[in-house]
Amino acid sequence: MLIRPATAADAEALADLHLDVWDEAYAGLMPAAILLTRRADRAGRVTRWRENLAARTTWVADDPATPGRLLGFSTGGDRRDDDPSLPARELWALYVRAEAYGTGLGRELLVAAVADEPAYLWVLAGNARALRFYEKHGFALDGHTKTEQFGREQRMVRR
Fold first, then answer.
1. Which of 12, 63, 102, 103 has the fewest CB atoms below 10 angstroms from its CB?
2. Which residues form the N-acetyltransferase domain (predicted)?
3. CB-side exposure of 139: number of CA atoms within 13 Å?
């Protein structure tokens, strides 16, 4: 699977991917109205992706069977939390389509975003698949939580 840096030309495909993977990953974990509201604002999501791509590196995986379609993405960067005890790297996002679960694509995107370095991330509480994936790759819950508009998130750290 080819993992590459996203370009501005990927904004629409990234918006569609992001909407799809949230539906797949979060159905039943957050109110359906949130997912519907996100989908109703596709044009706004495309605009935000264009802005995000201009500001930071996002890694994408092309679908070899369907040109122009993406199978996953990841973004990592410097720590955004003020806690100096945390690693300097944060995994900001990592998503793959359900059809790519178990293929190793998530691991490739994780490495692209934060390598095998110490890092931390926030995961939606109740997302058992994501928790297992991150635990498999050396992350552990550290007991910190926060509540965002989409639900409660738990922090995971890899030292």
1. 102
2. 1-159
3. 28
**Which residues are bridge partners to 148 per DSSP?**
151
pLDDT string in tens for the chain (159-residue length): 689 999 999 999 999 999 999 999 999 999 999 999 999 999 999 999 999 999 999 999 999 999 999 999 999 999 999 999 999 999 999 999 999 999 999 999 999 999 999 999 999 999 999 999 999 999 999 999 999 999 999 999 999
DSSP letter (8 states) at residue 105: H
Are 76 and 3 spatial neighbours (Cβ–Cβ below 8 Å)?
no
Q: How many Å apart are CA 81 and CA 101, to the nearest integer?
A: 29
CA distance 13 to 93: 16
Angle, CA of 133, 134 and 138, to the nearest 5°: 120
Question: What is the pTM assigned to this prediction?
Answer: 0.96
Q: Which two tokens stand for residue 9?
A: 């030309």
| Residue 146 β-bridge partners | 153
The structural domains of the chain, with segments of one domain joined by +, span: 3-158
Q: Which residues pair with 156 in a beta bridge?
A: 121, 141
The tokens of 1 are what?
Answer: 């699977």
Report yes or no: 114 and 86 within 8 Å, Cβ to Cβ.
Answer: no
